[in-house]
Amino acid sequence: MKNLFRFSLVILSVFMANVAKADDMELLVKVAKENNKWVSFITNESQNIDLTLYSSTDEVLYEQRLKTVGNKFKTYDLSALPLGLYTLKMESPLKTVTYQIEITADSAIVATPVVKIFKKPSLAKEKDLVTLNLNGVGEGEVQVDVYNEFNEKLHEDVYTSEAKVVRKYDVSRTPSKQLTFVVRTGNQEFSETIKL
After folding, report:
1. Three-class DSSP category at 2
2. Paired sense of beta strands 153-160 and 95-103, if any
3. Distance of alpha carbon 23 from its chain centroid, rounded?
């Protein structure tokens, strides 16, 4: 058991030497001697990540939603893919990180990531409270509408963009099974549904 633990630490150290870091998401690449290719990534906080792999013609080859808790290490084997260029896109609630990956005869080569940080409202549900954080979204007025599962508007608010609004909603008395929060600002609209 101790030998397995030491071996795992050595492997992790090798992976850590090949990190292409992008703040809250990191991608690691390791090429095996047996001509296999692995793409691995580590997240360092709890979050939802949408992971999508595209071909050079923007065809979606693979997609997965991951819910990570704390540090998460995930590995994907790309050895079945034909030689060529691919795009790996990882989206967290506040960031999109895009990697170009070239699959050659014996390796996977990852280019420097393109990181796009955007302000997006975030929702969190804990027991009977839903917290909406506008995260300084948009310029001008920000309108927040709350709908039930029948698309009936239950609540609306308007805020100025200067306000970094965090609003808590007590949902303990609502008969709704889910609520959809729609945030509109300028030419952007964000929506997210919370199951109750």
Report:
1. helix
2. unpaired
3. 12
Question: In terms of pTM, does the model score above 0.70?
Answer: no
Rg (CA), the chain: 21
Cβ atoms of 174 and 121 within 8 Å: the answer is: no
The answer to whether the beta carbons of residues 37 and 108 sit under 8 Å apart is yes
The Cα 192–Cα 120 span in angstroms is: 11
Per-residue model confidence as pLDDT tens digits over 102-149: 888 877 787 877 777 767 788 899 999 999 888 777 667 888 999 999
Q: What residue has token string 């792999």? A: 53
CA quadruple 119, 113, 15, 57: dihedral, nearest 10: 110
β-strand 60-68 against 47-54: which pairing, if any? Answer: antiparallel
Q: What is the pLDDT of residues 147-171, one digit of tens each?
A: 999 999 999 988 876 556 788 999 9
Distance from C-alpha of 132 to C-alpha of 5, rounded to nearest angstrom: 42
Q: Taking the chain, what is the end-to-end CA distance rounded to the nearest angstrom?
A: 44
* In contact, 148 and 171? CB cutoff 8 Å: no
Q: How many residues does the chain have?
A: 196
CA distances from 44 to 49, 68, 76, 135, 148 (A): 12, 9, 18, 21, 34
> Which residue in 64, 59, 66 sits closest to 85, CA to CA?
59
- The CA distance from 112 to 63, in Å, is 21
